[in-house]
Amino acid sequence: MCGRFVLHTPPESLAEYFDIDVIPDLAASYNIAPSQSVAAVRVPEQDREMVMLRWGLLPSWAKTAKTNYSMINARTETVAEKPAYRTAFRQRRCLIPADGFYEWRQIPDGKQPYYIRMRKDGVFAFAGLWERWIGPDEKIDSCSIIVTEANDTIRPVHDRMPVIIRPADFDQWLDPECRDADAMKELLQPWPAEEMTANPVSKYVNSPANNDAHCIEQVT
What we know:
single chain, 220 residues, hypothetical protein yedk fold, 7-stranded mixed beta sheet, 12 strands, globular
């Protein structure tokens, strides 16, 4: 699945990559965890915007604002049908910037964390969904990351991986008027394995309280 990720690309580079004029003042984060606020690109009306969303989608019909941690990821196989995701999948899709993400491999004495990134480094975009919940005293915009089957690079570590959207498909993915579920599903493919690398890192990353560059340092 995808339960932790990294974003350290400077804001000015994010603005260029996503073609956005104004973005939040983001600090580098090496251990982004569920329930935290994450940067996301969306098109609520006509223009792209980057906003902060709570990671862990809260359906608009939920009775309370309590976060359901199981909703940090939506599976490609059911995203168009599940009540919690289907409306957002049709008209509230977003891009979630990342420089890499973590998965844990089961080993005899526990779980070994791996940091997964592009071989050429650099920012990329997860396929995301966003939703708005309105309560008596607050409004919460939240999101989920879509996951699919793992490619050959990631499969030895985990059987799932986040969907990554190519820049050439940003406009189609973000367009709220494009409600063809089959066309959207065509974009939900595993990223080419040869373009990614997975390196073991210290168990230091296991604690969300640890959030610095040491999290992504490779270990033997």
